[in-house]
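Request from the bench team (R.T.):
"We need a structural guess for the complex before ordering more calcium ion. Sequence and SMILES attached. Just send the tokens back."

Command: build protein-calcium ion structure.
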Amino acid sequence: MAGNTSQACGGSGGPCTACATYQSCSGGKCNIDPNSDWKVTVVNAGVDPSSGPWDPGAPLTFVNPDPYVKVTSGGLSGETGTENDTFSPLFNDMVLTAKAKDLTTLVNIRTYDEDPIPPDQIMGDCSLPFTYGDLAAGTRTVAPCGASVTAVNFTFAPK
Ligand SMILES: [Ca+2]
Ligand SMILES: [Ca+2]
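Reply to R.T.: structure attached below.
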């Protein structure tokens, strides 16, 4: 195997290393392939407990928000399930599979409070690119993410 191909990667006469399927070889190193697909998971989020009121008039046990998170990148979007009546929702939901080149261009993250009567209230909205470093690390915290959302935590895995 040649030292500098998409299958093997060893620069300057160094040993050949097989790149992972989501990587390609450039400059004698294995780097994340811009066209590789990545599964994006929303682990959890934090909502400012002093924000709101989100569900005024509801019985006391239901006044806290019912958050879910919608993630959009490269024309694709997906959302978590809804966690009821909490400022610290734990999702662990895989929301979409997107290309590295799209995730590192722009990602929109919008957190809603699900309501019985639409439209759902927007609690936080932010847009930013993830980085190749985020994908390689497999994790990223976005904090804050809009008006009332203190943090959204993500994990990534190659498809
Ligand atoms: Ca509400
Ligand atoms: Ca509620």
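Two things stood out. The CA atoms of residues 43 and 92 lie 4 Å apart. Residues 132-137 form the longest helix (6 residues).
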